[in-house]
Design a protein that fits this description.
The protein has 201 residues and is mainly β. It folds into two domains: 36 residues, no CATH class; 140 residues, Immunoglobulin-like (Sandwich). It is 0% helix and 44% strand. The protein contains no helices and 15 strands. The strands form four sheets. Strands 4-14-13-7-10-9 form a six-stranded antiparallel sheet, with no helix packed on it. Strands 5-6-11-8 form a four-stranded antiparallel sheet, with no helix packed on it. The chain has a three-stranded antiparallel sheet with strand order 2-1-3, with no helix packed on it. Strand 9 and strand 10 form a beta hairpin.
Length: 201
């Protein structure tokens, strides 16, 4: 930034710009921020903010598409989320129903911290034979430490059901994040549901 000697951000701080400037630990709240410079040349700035929302409640909605999640035992019976045993195998059933035949739909199922996905590609894992029973095969699935992702176009009837397996590995009372579905190229078509808590005993 040649020939620019000072940079002022509102009434908060003024500093020499001959060296890179990093501003940290400022309580800006909801105040406006004004940036002004003295001298000639170009000034580039980057603003980033991160944090944890104070309100843990997520707005649940169904806009053009509906996604729901159930927790089942191996026999297909729905289980109580507040009475899961450590080491128990849980079948997660995801169902999606839409108004139209949408394409490029992504379903994101965030896991509570006490769950771990059982990888069906490992023959010794519980649920390794579940893939053969699936009536619907998504275009792509992605298993991560904290979530299970489905990427797919909807079938002709605009709905599908998909199952995968998790294991309750850690005792505790955990936040259950909501499951969501949306069209990747039209985020106004989305569904969010199913937040709550999971207790592993």
């Amino acid at each position: 930034m040649p020939d620019i000697s000072h940079l002022r951000i509102g009434n908060i701080l003024e500093f020499d710009t001959l060296s890179p400037a990093v501003i940290k630990k400022m309580d800006l709240g909801s105040d406006d921020i004004d940036i002004s410079v003295q001298g000639r040349g170009n000034v580039y700035y980057y603003w980033s903010a991160s944090g944890i929302p104070l309100a843990q409640k997520v707005e649940e909605m169904d806009a053009g598409i509906k996604v729901r999640r159930k927790y089942l035992d191996k026999d297909g019976n729905q289980i109580n989320k507040n009475d899961i045993s450590q080491g128990q195998v849980v079948v997660v059933e995801i169902s999606v129903d839409a108004d139209l035949n949408y394409q490029n739909v992504v379903v994101s199922d965030m896991l509570p911290a006490g769950f771990e996905i059982e990888n069906p590609r490992i023959a010794t894992r519980d649920g390794s034979g579940l893939a053969a029973e699936q009536a619907f095969e998504p275009d792509h699935i992605d298993m991560r430490d904290d979530r299970f992702l489905i990427f797919t176009d909807l079938p002709p009837n605009n709905k599908f059901t998909y199952k995968y397996v998790v294991r309750a590995v850690t005792k505790g009372d955990f936040v259950l994040p909501p499951i969501s579905a949306e069209c990747m190229y039209d985020p106004s078509i989305k569904s969010v549901s199913g937040q709550g808590r999971v207790i592993i005993k």
